[in-house]
Amino acid sequence: MTLFSSHKLSLVALTCIGLLHPNAAASLHPQIPSVASFVNSGAPGFVLSTSTQVAVDSAFQSSGSPSLMSYAQTFRDDLISMTGFTVPEVKSLSMEDSASPSTIFMTLGATNHSYFNGEATEEGYDFTISSQSYIIKGSGANGAWWGTRTLLQQAAMSSVGSGSNGSITIPAGSGSDTPGWEIRGFMIDAARHWFEPSFLADMCIYASFFKLNSLHLHASDNLWDQNLISGPDWRELYSAFRFQPSEGSPIAGIILLPNETWSKENFTVLQSTCSAHGVAIIPEIDTPGHSLAITKWKPELMIPNTPDSLNLSHPDTIPTIKALWDEVLPWFSASEVSIGADEYDPALADAYISFVNEMSTYISSKSGKSIRAWGTNEPSSTASISKNVTIQHWDFPDSSVPVQLMQRGYRVINSEQQFLYLDGKTSDKGQFPVELDQALMWGGAPDGGGWAPNIFTRHDPHNNTDPSNPLLRGSIMAIWNDWGNNATTPLEIYYQLARSLAVFAEKVWAGSGVRETALTQDQFNSVYATLNAAAPGQNLNRAVPPQPNNVVFQYPTVAEPQTSAFDSVGPPYTLTFTIKPSNATEISVPLLDGTSMRVPYDGGVIFAGRDSKLHVQSLAFEDPATGIRYPLPYALPADEYTTVAIHATRSYTYAEIGGSVHWWTTDLDIWGEYMKPANMSFAAPSHFIRAEGFSGELHNVSLVLG
């Protein structure tokens, strides 16, 4: 008998012959999202160790996009990342081939997997676990990929308290799992805050661990300040179009921030990384509102006195929008894109509706892609949006009532803001929470049950629908950046999203009140921290391996520039040093011809890392992604010794100096109506010490976790 042949019996057959017991306690650990069904076999579990082999069914290795083999290779990388085991290269085997013990085998052919609406899906998977093998059978390659996330999460939970014998045991049995909805995504407002592609790629990888399958990338927009937008200085408002046109492109003039754009090459890498982890990028170019980036380039296209809205009656407006899409549509691999199309003057409803329909037809003819648009209640008695357009509901009453839209035949995505909106760090008078409201997510339905994609309001059950509604496609949660680059660092955005994504992932996979196996809030809370720390393929926590006495590094004196082994260390930490800056106001800089010149000197950079720099001048932290500096209300005295202790958490950073406490903060312009201070959190700049041009003495340097 070969290794795999003993697992060809179905779950029903095994139950009938007594090998599995229908009432046996499910002994998988709780995980995020929950598994739809599992029956414990009572047999010895699967031992994951350095001898484990990952194998792919040769009959299906090229199936899917990404292929089953590609997913297996990424999974192997994740397995190494999570466990530290030396895992051999992925093998291609047939079901009849013999294999070594401790084999993870990925294949296809699982049947009867469908979403809650009954639509068949390739995202489902069955799995069978014995002492010798862990077999994942997907209904498609994506389903097999999600099955590997279950394996990794079980490995992470099984390793807790497992001792140091170099192996991890996962309970034996058989299970089956399918997501409840097709669309399970998150939106990042990358238009009003710049993000490097590497950060967005890491966010995809993290979200994939919790089986989210799309990143909606809001890539064009502007800040809002009523005083500026309606006055002569409207061009001063920050705006961005993030896709960098090719050289000589007819749309090249739209780019005013070339250092804050994604080239086709680096966007392709980002997109490929996300795709390799089962996450599709849905790009959004938001028009005809939120279009200041376009009107700065072509002011003749704006509605008079409303520079962030395009005049759809101008003969060059729609050709200009089409030219933007012509440039970038070939970049995108997803089958859908978003044209935004929210918050436009309702008095221009007919022009708006005509525009949305024209763009739907145009983008489909150019690329075969369909479009999404934000739900906008545009009153018209003569026109209606094409039912080829998916409506992304976001608000009552600004958006049409989603239940009524579905009754009229529209496909709908739930992004209702009362449940699913976050805003970078702080928001207007507490409008949105720092992270998703746990009380709403676990008990925000009208009947007191938890939120799910079929829940649009907690007040009126008539505005909600059934999980099986065939026109309800799923849900996307959103983090906006209304306050711009200076409001947050990229890692602060991750801190806001990390837990929220996991809670959201449970709800869009399992729903609320649909499956008995869905997580309770207590179960979620019991496993989240472990799974967050274990999520492979990225290190957004900027965690470091355990250090003796939690000391990352310690140097009595740093007389010359040097590096540590860590490019960044996440909070909480304490960075302590004694510094005596030079009193020089100029320094000599060598030139290429062998001469030198004197230039002004601001003290240089003391520490630098992947996510932050610490300057001598005003002890300012710098975010390297945006170049923005956050000064401390303190100036180091020159030619004097000063001891500084920097304490950081995910919510704030402060310095103790000479018995006084000083906080790093930022000032947020709230809609141009008032200013609001907010604390800043910085990862430790841990890679370079005496980093850039620092002149002076540096002693008693230490970085301690906690």
From TrEMBL:
Residue ranges occupied by any Beta-hexosaminidase bacterial type N-terminal domain in the UniProt entry: 32-157
Pfam families, per the entry: Glyco_hydro_20 (PF00728), Glyco_hydro_20b (PF02838)
Domain of life: Eukaryota
Molecular function via GO: beta-N-acetylhexosaminidase activity
Keyword Signal appears in the UniProt entry: yes
Active site: 343 (proton donor)
Keywords on record: Glycosidase, Hydrolase, Signal
This enzyme's EC code(s): 3.2.1.52
Signal peptide start and end residues: 1-25
Residue ranges of every copy of the Glycoside hydrolase family 20 catalytic domain listed in the record: 182-510
SUPFAM superfamilies for the chain: (Trans)glycosidases, beta-N-acetylhexosaminidase-like domain
Catalytic activity: Hydrolysis of terminal non-reducing N-acetyl-D-hexosamine residues in N-acetyl-beta-D-hexosaminides
Keyword Lipid metabolism among record annotations: no
An individual GO BP term: carbohydrate metabolic process
Primary enzyme class: hydrolase
Assigned protein family: Belongs to the glycosyl hydrolase 20 family.
Name the UniProt record assigns to this protein: beta-N-acetylhexosaminidase
Organism: Mycena belliarum
